[in-house]
């Protein structure tokens, strides 16, 4: 089908003008050859941009206008497979915006906002295949939950910080805020899959929609956002979800006042280097636990709450993590494991794990 000719008259230059405006860039001077946009007063900028993507650059994934109108009333859900970094669509934000301190995870020091010396002109890593060998293990662990492509392609409309250096500072400040919002989306979407928490799914959906709305804010609004307050609100709901899930999954013999070893396993517990080989940690509360270099070979972690647990160099060989809650890919990437480690379905076996 041929595009509608009146709509076709929306000139590329005008679209670029809108994209620049959305990204808070100085507006390029209008060209005499640019026709007046026919929908200047009747369509919002976002719709014109989406029209551009749909008709002129369909490969960039625009949506039919009918869906866009729908979207303005009702935010779409988000599937969990979209909540992972897509470096192809990102302007190398984690390689620029974040600071590194020379350590076992990073071979060099780097200040926030300074591009890593290994970042290439096309925003790809020049040492991607040798990161661990060259001392950049931290880069193989990190996951932005999809915040990088959101900031690059939506918040800044596909205009990168090299093309538009005036946006660099705010883009790098917006990225860690967006990363926090996307991390919350990861936990909230997981919460909606947990049947024991069905009684509070309505509240979870409400906060999921609110978080999605926040991800669509413009850069200046994102910078003013009180992320800590929003996190606290989400966390309260995640805690309630966790209690419902663990209560249902807890083995009968442990449904009594905490004592001995059960008492020792608690939120934020220091288990650095602990020998937990074959431990029964079903439905345990390991929120924020320090499990660095712990021996968790063959441990049973089903229905355990693992949010924020530090698994750096922990050995998960043969461990059972199916049904554990709030585990992320970055936590797995930081740990050791093998082909026998059982994983939740939304996570993948890290490439560096032994067979
Ligand atoms: S080493 Fe590669 S992946 Fe790590 S920050 Fe530098 S460019 Fe990015």
UniProtKB/TrEMBL annotation:
Coiled coil: none annotated. It comes from the Bacteria. Signal peptide: none annotated. InterPro entries: 5peptide_repeat, Pentapeptide-BTB/POZ_domain. This is Pentapeptide repeat-containing protein.
